[in-house]
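Q: Structure tokens for this one, please.
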Amino acid sequence: MDFSHPRYYNNRELSWLAFNERVLQEAMDKRNPLLERLKFLAIFSSNLDEFFMVRVAGLKDQVKAGFNKPENKAGLTPKEQLKKIAKKTHELVKWQYDMYNRTLLPMLRAEGVHLLAPNEWNDEQTTYLQSYFMKNIFPVLTPMAVDAYRPFPMLLNKSLNLAIVLEDDEEEEDDRKKLAIVQVPSVLSRFIPLPANNDTHMYALLEDVITTFIHTLFKGYNVSSVTQFRITRNADLTIHEEGARDLLKEIEKELKKRKWGAAVRLEMSKKGFDEWVLDYLLDELEIHEKDVYKIDGPIDLTFLFSFYHEVARYKEHLVFQTLIPQPPKDLDDEEDIFEKAKERDLLFHHPYESFEPVIDFISDAADDPHVLAIKQTLYRVSGDSPIIEALKRAAENGKQVTVLVELKARFDEENNVQWAKELEKAGCHVIYGMTHLKTHSKITLIVRQKHGNIERFVHLGTGNYNDATAKVYTDFGFITANEQFGEDATNFFNYLSGYMEKPEFHHLVVAPFDLRQQFLQLIDEEIRYHKQYGDGRIIAKMNSLTDKQLIMKLYEASQAGVQIDLIVRGICCLRPQMKGVSENIRVRSIVGRFLEHSRVYYFHHHGKERVFLSSADWMTRNMDRRIEILFPIFRQQLKERLIEVLHILLSDNVKAREQNEDGEYEYVKRKEDEEEVDSQMMLFQMAYDVADDEE
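A: Here is the predicted structure, written as tokens:
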């Protein structure tokens, strides 16, 4: 049977939009506290920004280059994809603002929190804002006239701007209309608290205040209209690695260009909207009318991230109850992590279990006089990273410290350039990975000499060495003192930093060399076991599934009768439940309080259960264009824990959605007598129960 027909696949971009729609559903979910619902609107907007800056921008580049071949899975040309993306995105943005205006703002008001429009300001508030404007805002503003001598300014990516149409009565009719641009300063808060009593909290939006008093910048002219607008630009870096003598400098150069890429989206406020301004901007930015989004409310709802924190200070009941990551099940209080790892392999499940032991693992190594070397890959780290500080301290303490900093981690390039410089200054040996490949693997090797013996400790993870995201991303971490893992880690780092052929590994499977082949082989083996014993089962958890070869192999396994459960948070190009093709495959997505980020792969193998953790999703880029690691779990108790987690996720009937044969997602229906299972809350409760038992 030919599994390559386009009808068997979801388009990658439309599948991503379906994921972002699930994020939007969380803003609708009445079980979420009000401020959390507002935050989901901000997450939706932030996600959409990145989607336009990278994915939509890439498709537009293909159209400009005259590329009109269909993509290889769902069979849509770049133009067809852009058309469908625009249609779906316009629908989602309308839904987003309907929810904001008609549901969430009225609920905020009922709680005594008001975001006031200018027509709602009373005389006292207007006077206060006028004074505030003159004192705090006016000095920061720069009006930019647009005429023959002053061309249209190059406006920053994602900056909020005002287009002011002015009329000069003294000019002749054809020259009466003038255009000026004023950028809304990003250095100022988007919301301004207004004087109010203790029970009521009122705010005005910065852009509304500037719009109201904008005439003070243009004395002698009549302000005809003020249109709020925002441009999203192509922000994908074009890094010429082959000719770059210094990748650090090449990336710094490209980062400057990112702010000025070609426009891919124009958002304009319906309030004060001016058709003449729209026509002008369409012509100036060279974009199509379908790329214009007329917004019924404040442009760029990512300001709700900071508004969330503002309101949460005095409305604690409107946010999620604080959940404190618990001490890991595999570690007792004050237990030496190195000595424990020598006894047995350790598994951590974040954010249910604390990320602190991972920080301690590196921090203790930095100060341990017996430690000779620390080697680590860094993809994304937090802004004030304790891990970076520990690595710098280790180098200052005379240890051999090698850090692979992935400079091409999208939208973290600037941070990573800065970290690379700081680490080098401290005496660390910093490398930047391999040409044309992103190093996405998460691995740390610590080499120590004790009692004359060399000991190696390895940490491997499904997520980044980022203490901030470890509180909101679900991930697994693994520490072992197994000698063969130690040898594998040593060879892995030597391969990355030096000139050598790809090493043979005992346990690690590494992309872009062997990873896809390993997964294909594991699925083939499951098919063989099923044909012999009839008990084939695969459970795979990941962020996204796009790789066509793996999808075709899963279809083959389904046809053979293997039962397959896929837990895929985001993009899923595979279509389940298609008769004769994928009827034995179920696909579910869990979108909830925490971002499901861990990658776990389970193969039943007639009771010989094989369980793997990985940094890699089943995406073509992870198989072919990234350095990734897949590693097996051998210790039986750890395998059982991972299998239990998978089964809990598969029993979720609160935050889980299932994909049907048409590629649409629907909430899992709960049976009448079935208890509610919110998998994330259940896993947190289990971590609390373990901590209570240990006390």
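A few notes: The mean pLDDT is 93. The longest strand covers residues 222-233.
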